Amino acid sequence: xxxxxxxxxxxxxxxxxxxxxxxxxxxxxxxxxxxxxxxxxxxxxxxxxxxxxxxxxxxxxxxxxxxxxxxxxxxxxxxxxxxxxxxxxxxxxxxxxxxxxxxxxxxxxxxxxxxxxxxxxxxxxxxxxxxxxxxxxxxxxxxxxxxxxxxxxxxxxxxxxxxxxxxxxxxxxxxxxxxxxxxxxxxxxxxxxxxxxxxxxxxxxxxxxxxxxxxxxxxxxxxxxxxxxxxxxxxxxxxxxxxxxxxxxxxxxxxxxxxxxxxxxxxxxxxxxxxxxxxxxxxxxxxxxxxxxxxxxxxxxxxxxxxxxxxxxxxxxxxxxxxxxxxxxxxxxxxxxxxxxxxxxxxxxxxxxxxxxxxxxxxxxxxxxxxxxxxxxxxxxxxxxxxxxxxxxxxxxxxxxxxxxxxxxxxxxxxxxxxxxxxxxxxxxxxxxxxxxxxxxxxxxxxxxxxxxxx
Length: 455
Description:
This protein is α/β, with parallel strands linked by helices and 455 residues long. The protein has 13 helices and twelve strands. It has helices at residues 12-36, 55-68, 82-90, 108-113, 157-167, 182-191, 206-211, 225-231, 273-287, 311-319, 330-385, 391-410, 419-452; strands at 44-48, 73-77, 98-102, 116-124, 127-132, 147-149, 176-178, 196-200, 217-219, 236-240, 256-260, 262-268. The strands form three sheets. It has a five-stranded mixed β-sheet, sandwiched between helices. The longest helix is centred in the C-terminal third of the chain and has 56 residues, at 330-385. Pfam families: NMT1_3. This is ABC transporter substrate-binding protein. The chain crosses the membrane at residues 12-34, 339-363. Keywords: Membrane, Transmembrane, Transmembrane helix.
């Protein structure tokens, strides 16, 4: 080691020896608390979406991409739709953690008993009633006797469509109900084997986009949409603006009035808070822009949901991201948010330790000097108690012992701030040596005079 490092203001080795055990103890306690107080979020979550080519499936892919940036794998599980998603959430053995669920299809008591929570409303899902142009459909009562596809029971459409028929004085038996999935039902409509089909979906769905531009296929105009929204609280009145599909071709050629339930994100209440934060933030990015039926920043929100919105999501929609996440990476902010109790406790623990470690450090350094005082004191006792007959052998032996002690003391490495202790020890060694020499010289003449006296 270079000589420049031999003389320092403090001793790193002594500091490690004194503070090391306490540091290890604190780290161990922090690790135990990190594992037990609030476990770290899982790296995988299962999201139930919808049918192939549905808006739910498209949005599910966007959520998977958003969470993948944070190292979270989102497993997408297809389903028939909202109703099946809800049933999977109610089943604790389904493996589904979070799902898209449509307003109006939720049994509030069952959801409460199962511990489900809402992350808020994401977008409106208009009821799209497409029919063959030859049918000239202007009133829903004209559906009597027609072949209408409403989708499988796993979706929320069959229940919703039955309610719509009932307020128009029709029974389900008055209509030839088909329950094909959306893709094969679209093929059936184009081939003329059914007269109409009903979707409830965001306009992002590929089938919606295609049917809006298909010649010979018309969209039903719910001219009484406002009345429907008053009769059914889960429905809202939305307008498909003229030209929104294709301005150049003026599609659609007029404003269409539609009725729309709202899509929500519903999760199990034991879903890790960090994952809830990620889904809520992703929802703000995915659904926060302007769209066919929404203005900029209108969605997501805490409205239009039958299940109470979890406080973390409601706070995000009101105030934006949590304070720490505005200035730190998500994982670092999440760590501090989860471990703040431990950090406070750690601060309370470090305060008394900070008062104990410095005295221990001082004692540890000085002990390298003080332990030689014990041997120095032993030498003094020997020379004080030696009988006259052994002085000639004891004094030289103790002088040799002092030389050995001094040699070892000279090899002691000590911080400069404690150098006075070392120099004081070396002075005391020299003082004892002088005392031995003085005693030796003082007693030798006395013995010579005693020997010269006559008997």
